[in-house]
Design brief:
The chain has 409 residues and is of the alpha/beta class. The protein contains 19 helices and seven strands.
């Protein structure tokens, strides 16, 4: 066997090849372009890399064009955690010396000695990888929208609390088009006090409202004209300009989140696993796409349901030493999948009688707090999802929660 290690960087990469005995066979310094990739593939082919006997490659990242080139064919690519690679480096030298060619050699030796302890990148389909890109981007856009919205809310509390009171009746008030039109029309309390009913009605119509315009305009006019403490006039104008700058960022974040959500709605239903995922209570298109994005569609990725539960961070972990033993939650996990699981379990409590009964039993009989009971429910449901995906079956309430449903009845 021959093993390859690549220490990657932004513009250049270092490559090292070793054999079974750890002897360095070849090393190259390649550029991050088509010419450099050709040099790398030619080097691998020179040492016997074929579809029948591919050379495994270790690299400290799982994305990028270099990884995409390496994943062509049947070649296994191992994404090694940089912290793990740093620990392996100390096995070969106590002087703490470091160099890029040396790191490439360390990565190659990791595969030579401990390839069984590391997992190659999953062989997901192109559609699953596309859903992964869109779902993660939509999740990031949603988090960014919430962050900018919180910044805007904090700023309005400093000088314009009447605006927050006016928008509080709407769900996600600051993210709605009506709020954006009114804030753009009246960025300060002084200008808000001069708004007329006609101006407010026109703003609501520009935002796309078709019903309840007159009543909402009257309510907004009364709220915005209510007496409240005010900043100095010059300070208020300056804060209004800062608010308008934040409003531009919030509008861009809202458009990005909505656009990516539509892209997910178009791509996710085309996947063969979408029907199974959507059959589970609490999973919609957006949340189901996030779950698929993190677990993929490579059925060989997880050996059993326990592996998937550990990857999701839903199963507990035992720490034992001497006479002391403790069972705690997992801290090393896929944070995106764990976050999606939290929302999934929370939604399934109201969508599934069996899930609700299981949650109540964990709270009442076992004394779990809300988060622990919800994590236990997620642990059970993701195990059921693994079974359904392996057997190509849809979710069945009576099969999933037979004892809970009987107890509830």
């Amino acid at each position: 066997m021959i093993y390859c290690g690549i220490d990657w960087a932004e513009k250049t990469h270092d490559v090292a090849l070793v054999d079974d005995t750890g002897e360095l066979l070849a090393k190259r310094h390649i550029t991050d372009d088509a010419a450099g990739y050709k040099v790398l593939l030619d080097l691998l082919a020179e040492y016997g890399d074929t579809d029948e006997s591919p050379i495994p490659v270790a690299i400290e990242t799982s994305r990028g064009l270099l990884v995409a080139v390496l994943r062509t064919g049947t070649r296994q690519v191992f994404a090694i955690n940089p912290l793990a690679a740093a620990r392996y480096r100390d096995r070969h030298s106590v002087s703490r010396k470091k160099s890029d060619p040396g790191d490439a050699l360390v990565l190659a030796n990791i595969l030579r000695t401990d390839m069984h302890a590391h997992r190659p990148l999953p062989q997901d389909s192109d559609l699953a990888r596309a859903v992964t890109v869109l779902a993660r981007a939509q999740q990031d856009a949603t988090w960014n929208r919430q962050q900018v919205s919180n910044q805007l809310r904090s700023l309005l509390r400093e000088y314009y609390p009447a605006a927050l009171d006016a928008f509080s009746i709407w769900q996600n008030g600051l993210c709605r088009h009506e709020a954006h039109e009114i804030l753009r029309l009246a960025p300060t309390p002084a200008r808000a006090a001069r708004l007329t009913r006609t101006q407010l009605q026109a703003a609501l119509k520009r935002a796309g409202r078709t019903r309840g315009i007159e009543s909402d305009a009257e309510r907004l006019r009364e709220t915005l004209r209510s007496d409240s403490p005010r900043q100095a006039l010059l300070v208020e104008d300056a804060l209004g300009k800062q608010m308008l700058a934040l409003l531009v960022q919030l509008e861009a974040a809202c458009r990005a989140a909505d656009g990516l959500a539509k892209a997910v709605e178009e791509a996710f239903p085309q996947h063969p696993d979408a029907e199974i995922l959507l059959s589970f209570p609490g999973l919609g298109i957006q949340l189901g796409a996030r779950v698929l994005a993190e677990i993929g569609d490579d059925r060989q990725r997880f050996a059993d349901a326990r592996g998937l539960k550990a990857y999701a961070g839903s199963s507990p972990i035992t720490r034992a030493s001497g006479k002391k033993s403790s069972i705690t939650r997992r801290w090393v996990k896929n944070d995106r999948l764990n976050h999606a699981g939290y929302l999934w379990a929370f939604s399934s409590i109201t969508a599934s009688p069996g899930a609700n009964s299981h949650y109540r039993r964990r709270r009442d009989d076992h004394g779990d707090w809300h988060a622990a009971a919800q994590r236990n429910l997620f642990n059970r449901m993701i195990g059921q999802l693994y079974h359904c995906l392996q057997q190509r079956k849809l979710f069945d309430e009576h099969t999933a929660f037979p004892s809970q449903l009987a107890a509830a009845a």
